[in-house]
Amino acid sequence: MLKLDLVERGHVCMAVVDAKCPNCGNIIKIETNRLLSGCPYCKASFNTNDAIQAYRTHIATGGKAVDNTFEIEDNKLIRYNGRSKSVTVPSGIEIIGYEAFRFEGAKDEHVLQSIILPSSVKVIEEGAFANNIVVTNIDLSECDNLVEIGPRAFSGCRSIYEIDLSKCSSLEKIGEKVFAGCKGLGSVKFPTSLNEIGQSAFMNTGLTEIDLSMIKLKKLDTQIFKSCPQLESVILANCDKVGDINKDSFPELESLLRLDFSNCKNITSINDSAFTKFKRLQYINFSGCENLQYIENNAFKDCVNLIECTFGDLPKLQVIGKNAFRGCRALENVDLSQTNIKSIEIWGFGQCPVLRTISLPESIETISSWAFNECDSIMTINLSNCINLAYIEQAAFQNCKSAQAIILPDNVNVISKSAFQGCVMAKSIKFPANVGTIESLAFADMSNLQELSFTNCSILISIDKEAFRNETSLQTIDFSNCGIQTICEEAFKGCSKLRDIKFANNENLMSVQLGAFSGCKKIKKLNISGIANGDKVFDKKAFDGVKFTTK
Fold first, then answer.
1. How confident is the model at residue 13 (pLDDT cuts 50, 70, 90)?
2. How many Å separate Cα 488 from the centre of its chain?
3. Most buried residue, 14, 40, 128, 538, by most Cβ within 10 Å?
4. Number of separate domains in the chain
5. What's the pLDDT at 526?
6. Can you list the pairs that 1-7 forms with residues at least 24 positions away whose Cβ atoms lie under 8 Å?
7. pLDDT greater at residue 67 or residue 533
8. Cα 384 to Cα 228: distance, rounded to the nearest angstrom
9. What does the alpha-carbon distance between residue 12 and residue 268 come to, in Å, rounded to a whole number?
10. What stretch of H or E contains 48?
């Protein structure tokens, strides 16, 4: 039965009946004397009789006589009052209002599972869909006019596993905490138009990866990643709004496995202790960060699972700071060959036990104390390309136990205390002409070293105390044409297989000190004819415990 109401307008009573909008399907009231009527919800115009007939059909097929599912004012959806599992928001709606779909009922009262939004939507206001705990799907694939999603819009929708915004080609802004508490959310796809993401946008979600590489943010507040306990990968490649990285840049993200900063052109520094808490971090990429200058102290210290750090082309990188990569126990390769680095500071890469290869640039001037100490797996220490390296500091490569070859740069002048001590697998060392001082213990305890040649080391001043102590496989030493002045106490002590020492044109040799060759019991003859001062340069106990003849 058609429900008829009479509405007095002036002195005339107008018949008002229920009808159904042919466009959006909402149940409305219309005046029967009008040829054309309009829908207050979607603003569509239609023939009055068509709407009345649509309502009659609606009733005849079991539809409800009154439908207050949507409360709409001026193209704005104020409130959804329905109890359906699936909802299609009427076409023509431009704004989803404040908490329009928010539901606060008991868990077993939640029924809404799927929401489809029309292309007309431009703004989703704060909390619009909040706390719909059984919603699994919000379809925004037609929302090409959507410009802004307000704060907490989807917060608490803990059953949503995917949000696809990639078709929202006009979307510019996502508000703070927009997905907060979406514990099931594992994937978010962004449109290239997006330029702002609010703080804590992904807080307490189930996201494992966030890829911002294809969007152009006006600013990046890294607090957007705060409290993402499942997050394993953050891709910020090409994001020129990423600035210097500090220890608060990625708070509460100890779950991270991968960070990609490639082509982030505004990063100038990785600051002190920036990633020291990231024990699970495995991969990090800085290639193309053309303004990166410093990786500061402790930046990646004790990142025990870090396998790969890609440096790539970094023309302004100057310093690897103290302890920067110390204790990165899974790091396998260090390639700095495309950088202009000048200094690796104390313990820079120390205690990286599976580090196998290192490649250093021409620009490097200082390898500081313990820089590669206890890097047990380095196979070759090749410094030949380091033409500006004059000083290798104390214990820089100490206990690199797998290094089979040590190749020194032509311009190195000082090899400091214990620089290569304990490199037990090294079989050969070639000393360049410019070496001036070999300090105490510099090459001690290298049990596989078989020969040493100092030929043409014309400015070599001294070989200090115990510099080559306990080279138990060493058989020959050649000082021919060497400018050596002093061989200090116990310099070659304990070289038990040493048989032959060659002196020739050693006019500058002034002193071979106490115990310099003590314990070298295989020496039987010593030719000192090439020494200007003959046997006068030798301390009485220079060869303590060794019996030999001279000529």
1. low
2. 48
3. 128
4. 3
5. 85
6. 2/52, 2/55, 2/56, 3/65, 5/29, 7/31
7. 533
8. 46
9. 78
10. helix 48-60
**Least confident range of 7-11, 58-62, 456-460:** 7-11
Token couple for 121:
């939507």
Does position 513 have pLDDT exceeding 90, yes or no?
A: yes
Calpha distance 12→101 (Å, rounded)? 41
What residues contact residue 9 under an 8 Å CB cut-off, 6+ apart? none
Final residue in a domain of this structure, among 183, 200, 231: 231
| Residue 239 burial (C-beta neighbours within 10 Å; 0-12, 13-18, 19+) | buried
> Domain range for residue 166?
68-231
Write the DSSP string, 67-123.
--SEEEETTEEEEE----SEEEPPTT--EE-TTTT---S-GGG----EEE--TT--E
Phi/psi region, residue 105 (left: phi>0; alpha: psi -120 to 50; beta: rest), is: beta
46 shares its domain with 188? no
What percentage of the chain's residues is helix, strand, coil (to nearest 5)? Answer: 5, 25, 70
Whether 89 and 121 have beta carbons less than 8 Å apart is answered as yes
Q: Are residues 140 and 224 in the same domain?
A: yes
Residues 112 and 21 in one domain: no
- Residue 410 has which token pair? 């032509």
Residue 361 identity (one-letter amino acid): P
**Pairwise CA distance, residues 494 & 446, whole Å:** 11
Distances (CA, A) of 231 to 184, 185, 228, 281, 379: 12, 11, 5, 11, 36
CA 111/CA 140 separation, integer angstroms: 20
Nearest to 477 by CA among 514, 544, 460, 425: 460
Instruction: Report phi then psi at 9, rounded to 5.
Output: -125, 105
Backbone φ and ψ for 406, nearest 5 degrees, come out as -125, 115
Pair (35, 83) in one structural domain: no
CA distance 353 to 124: 53
DSSP assignment of 487-498, as one string? E-TTTTTT-TT-
Q: What order do you get walking across the sheet with 196-197 strand by strand?
A: 70-73, 76-80, 95-96, 123-124, 148-149, 173-174, 196-197
Q: Is residue 396 part of a domain?
A: no
Which token pair is 51?
A: 């709407």
The two three-digit tokens of residue 218, written as one number = 């006006």
Answer whether 96's CB lies under 8 Å from 125's CB. yes
Q: Which of 455, 406, 405 is nearest to 435 (CA)?
A: 455
63 and 87 inside one domain: no
CA 291 from chain centre, in angstroms, equals: 17
Q: Which of 200, 188, 187 is nearest to 152 (CA)?
A: 200
Residue % of the chain over a pLDDT of 90: 70
- Residues 6 or more apart from 361 whose CB is under 8 A from it? 336, 337, 338, 339, 340, 341, 385, 386
Mapped onto helix, strand or coil, the DSSP state of residue 269 is strand
What distance separates the 2 farthest-apart alpha carbons in the chain?
Answer: 142
Give per-residue pLDDT as tens, 470-489. Answer: 999 999 999 988 999 999 99
pTM (2 d.p.): 0.81
Q: Is residue 280 part of a domain?
A: no
**Residue 17 shares a structural domain with residue 109:** no
